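Encode chain A's predicted structure.
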Amino acid sequence: MENKNYAIPLALTVIGVIVGGYFLLGGDSSSRLAGLAGISDSNSEIEEVNPLDNFRPVESTDWIKGNLEAEIIIVEYSDIECPFCKVFHNTLKAVTADYDDNQVAWVFRHFPLDMLHQNARLEAEATQCAGIIGGNDKFWQYLSRLFETTNSNDGLDINQLPEIAETIGLDKQSFSDCLDQGLASEVVETDLQNAIESGAGGTPFAVITTKDGLKLAIPGAVPAEEMKNLIDNLLAEEL
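Encoded structure for chain A:
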């Protein structure tokens, strides 16, 4: 495989267009975003560690649309009550529909921002319960329903969570028991911590991986055209 020197310029282009659509967690955002792109400060005598080295590889236990062996996998870390996340989730839905399952796969992981959205963590656990009870397809169906229903920023009444589960064919009592017993809390927390360890400075945050081991951080609600250009370039390199 040829040297992929284009990876950093592409990442820089993406970063330049999405800062306005990104819930930052605080700190020096310019340094944080540079770190997400894997770029070291040339004026620093200390080599920065690439946070993407901490990214948890995609496994069969992940919620995935597409083939686990696809050329490109997009891992979305998201907060269901984040308005930018809602936009980016819909972008990924539209973009991934243009590729077959062997080209591009899509994984969802949780990144609830508790300090901004009080309902987001419970909603994340609710999607997990949907998957625990109904499997991968029901996870994605329930997740889509939540994004469609909420107006963002704690706009969804959490009392609706079991009702929504019932509308997609899940047993309401089993769902409520899963949620009440906190059966999904550990997975949500694990996803959140991995997002932070991987360099996320806010939501939405995504990591693109390729079969040859390349990893790119995508912080923010990148427009569909930018995502498609990035994917097409990466696919061309994979051929």
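Residues 120-134 form the longest helix (15 residues).
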